[in-house]
Amino acid sequence: MTILEKAQLWLSDTFDTDTQQEIKELIENDKDKLADSFYKSMEFGTGGMRGVMGAGTNRINKYTLGKATQGLSNYLIETLPNKQLSVVIAFDCRHNSQLFAKVVADVLSANNIKVYLFEDLRPTPELSFAVKHLGCDAGIVLTASHNPPEYNGYKVYWGDGGQIVPPHDNKIIAKVNELDFSEINFNANEDLIEVIGKKVDDAFVDASVKNVAFNTKGKENLKVVFTSLHGTSIVSIPDALAKAGYTDVHIVEEQRIPNGDFPTVASPNPEEPAALKMATDLAEQIQGDIVIGTDPDCDRLGIAVRDLEGNMKLLNGNQTMCLMTNFLIKKWKEAGKLNGKQFVGSTIVSTNLVNEIAESYGVETKVGLTGFKWIAKMVREAEGTQDFIGGGEESFGYMVGDFVRDKDAVTATVLACEIAAEAKAKGSSMYQELLQIYVDNNFYKEHLISLVKKGMDGAQQIAQMMVDLRENPISEIDGSKVNFVYDYEASTKNNLLTNTVETIDIPKSNVLIYETVDGTKVAARPSGTEPKIKFYFSVRGELCCIEKAKEVEAELDTKIQRIIKEMKLS
């Protein structure tokens, strides 16, 4: 069908009058927006289904969410027959999130599925926790993470608390694709919808604190600055910090109130220093030790700490996960709990330093595709044979233990404070602890470039960039020969020096990674949830002592810039 024919289907009685009117206006007045609204159907990516709100098949709206939920309902009924099914639903601070959550609840209940619906906005990790805590068969959260205000989204969790992975994901999508919009059952059975709140909140915060309670000294002396960036973390993090014993906590009041417009930031993304500026400014005023900011649905966190000169410095996601992984393994070792049956989780585009740290303690690192659903899958598959210590990825997320099966900024915030408090109590700092990790292993420096390519034309450009990289492989990066090319779409690891090929035993994904003889890594990956292609750079060098850190870091930064220029990405 043409885009116009697809759009005209939305003028039928299946759709409400407001939706029909919006489509008519697009047909008459905005052909470009019409094309973007209908050129494809909303798809599940690495983090679920995420997009701009509005009418159309490529938009987040009552009908695309309803269709996804009807497909999920059909799959649950078919896969888990002869039982009272149940699903828990949470939502974040975004425009229409509460409305969409009720639409989703209506469809589930109309299909005779019991629904636990949170009374108000809640962090995404609490939704993951609630799936297992309430014994549900699935969970859904309405969120678009750190995307701009016009976005919303939908993530599905299975009964283990992790996001859906094969084979469930593709089978659910197949069920969704079989449906016509006219087959969605919106007729709610209100008797099957139960509103939940404080009891689950308390259980979640208790579990969060319990998983990172290490009897750390000096908690009362750690001055913490926290910002929720207008998101859901304000519901949980202050309580968790208080319960963990942190009393000197300063909240950025201007960003305390949840607001889907995110009025004080250009982007509510804790990866960006600008998003944490109000928090770092407050830290300078009060001489804070650590700054922590979370994204709108509270699964990712950004951390700023004082460097050797006393200036606030934003850690990147790789640095944070290295600090957290090192600290957790060390605590397991001190408690006599390491017996060779533990592991940590990481992803193919995250730093190899995590692997080095784990290896130094005799702990395995399992590496999967981008997204915490793959780390959750590792945890589920290892149940009964291995203990999961913690896991993270470069995009500012971390997960401690297995009580939550997704990245969890609530628990990670408390963990960050534990690391900072212990370091301060012994006359060190969180930043010095990081530099010591570099001395003990290698100094790794990472950098990320995201190229935004919107719309149908942008999607074609991204696809072509990946084709070009595959058809014209890079043989040398900054003077160092490429020895390995990992193509996760073809499931191959090519050794260019020996001209041999191995099979990669990881699910297929459109990712290419080049690795050179000197340990440099360059990865290319189209985003699964945003109109972007991402390039990840990782370089390494030796650090003999903390005093040389600035010098070595400058050399590594220069190397990254040379590579970016060489690849014509600047």
From TrEMBL:
Q: Which Pfam families match?
A: PGM_PMM_I, PGM_PMM_II, PGM_PMM_III
Return one GO MF term.
isomerase activity
* Signal sequence region: none
Essential cofactor(s): Mg(2+)
Going by the UniProt record, its keywords in alphabetical order are: Isomerase, Magnesium, Metal-binding, Phosphoprotein
PROSITE patterns membership? PGM_PMM
- The name this protein carries in UniProt is Phospho-sugar mutase
Residue ranges of every copy of the Alpha-D-phosphohexomutase alpha/beta/alpha domain listed in the record? 42-181, 203-304, 316-437
Instruction: List the CDD domains hit by this protein, alphabetically.
Output: PGM2
- Assigned EC number: 5.4.2.-
Keyword Chloroplast listed? The answer is: no
Q: State the family it belongs to.
A: Belongs to the phosphohexose mutase family.
Species classification:
Bacteria, Pseudomonadati, Bacteroidota, Flavobacteriia, Flavobacteriales
Q: Which InterPro entries match?
A: A-D-PHexomutase_a/b/a-I, A-D-PHexomutase_a/b/a-I/II/III, A-D-PHexomutase_a/b/a-II, A-D-PHexomutase_a/b/a-III, A-D-PHexomutase_C_sf, A-D-PHexomutase_CS, Alpha-D-phosphohexomutase_SF
